[in-house]
UniProtKB/TrEMBL annotation:
Subcellular localization(s) per the UniProt record: Cell membrane
Record EC number: 2.7.13.3
Keyword Lipid metabolism assigned: no
InterPro entries with a match to the protein in the record: HAMP_dom (IPR003660), HATPase_C_sf (IPR036890), HATPase_dom (IPR003594), His_kinase_dom (IPR005467), HisK_dim/P_dom (IPR003661), HisK_dim/P_sf (IPR036097), HssS/ArlS-like (IPR050398)
Keyword line: ATP-binding, Cell membrane, Kinase, Membrane, Nucleotide-binding, Phosphoprotein, Transferase, Transmembrane, Transmembrane helix, Two-component regulatory system
HAMP domain location: 8-60
Presence of keyword Metal-binding: no
Positions in coiled-coil regions: none
Stated name of the protein: histidine kinase
Cellular component annotations (GO), alphabetically ordered: plasma membrane
PANTHER family: SENSOR HISTIDINE KINASE CPXA
GO molecular function annotations of the record: ATP binding; phosphorelay sensor kinase activity
Organism the protein comes from: Mucilaginibacter terrigena
Pfam families in UniProt: HATPase_c, HisKA
Amino acid sequence: MFTWLYFKRLQKNFNSFICTIERFREGDYEARFDARVPNELHSIMLAFNSLADRLHRNIQELKQSEDERKDFIANISHDLRTPLSVAKGYTETLLLQGKLNPQAIEHLQLVEHKIQVVENLVMQLFELSKLESVEFKAQREPFVIAEVMKEIVTSWVLPAEAKHIKLECLGCEGSYMIFADVSMLEKVIRNLMGNAVSYTPENGFIKVELHKKSTDLILQFSNSGPKVPADLIEWINRTDKGSGILKRPARSGLGLAIVKRILELHDYEFAITTNRHNQFTIRMKLYSN
């Protein structure tokens, strides 16, 4: 009887934990844990609430300088790592005990997954703060962009097939070279491919195309499905350098903010259009010796 009551309480706490994390991840920066009653996750909830208060307060008072804003993003991404590590260790320990019923195991695995989601969010925040640093410099070198495209597109074949999505890569066998930071361009392509697979409905299509136009290379990602929201298109297509993380539309995702910043660092032209279908276009300079 005691065990049953314990797991019922544990289940309730985990459900609340998951719900709050989901709200925060979706852009509700006022989401907080109800930490009035102590439980297994009490210290983590208090730490998260404190950090969330700090994040919300700084966003609301965004009269600070650009340097302060960047420092804040770097600090918050660093500070969030400790409570997340504690939460992850706690759930892993419970799972390893082996004395849980199937329902409790399922809930713990779900919590573990959500913690991983937030960990990825923190890593993206850290990545973005690094990209926005004045000291950061792209490590440019000549390379064949089609080779990078082919490798990344191939890695998304199975997820696309699981949704019966037709995936094409046109120009993936080309030998065109660009002068850019390889790892940063990989991040751009991975993020755009991930978004395309996530938002393309079942039985839809995704087309990645690379072609030469005069002295430029045009890289395009096209996919079927619901049109990209107008506010997101406006934000992506803005060319002023002040349209960063805190000015992005709700639910746009940090991945797109990273993509936008990387392309800005390379001085590439880019834009989203939704005429016939969603299309993200990047214009890059051909490399010549």
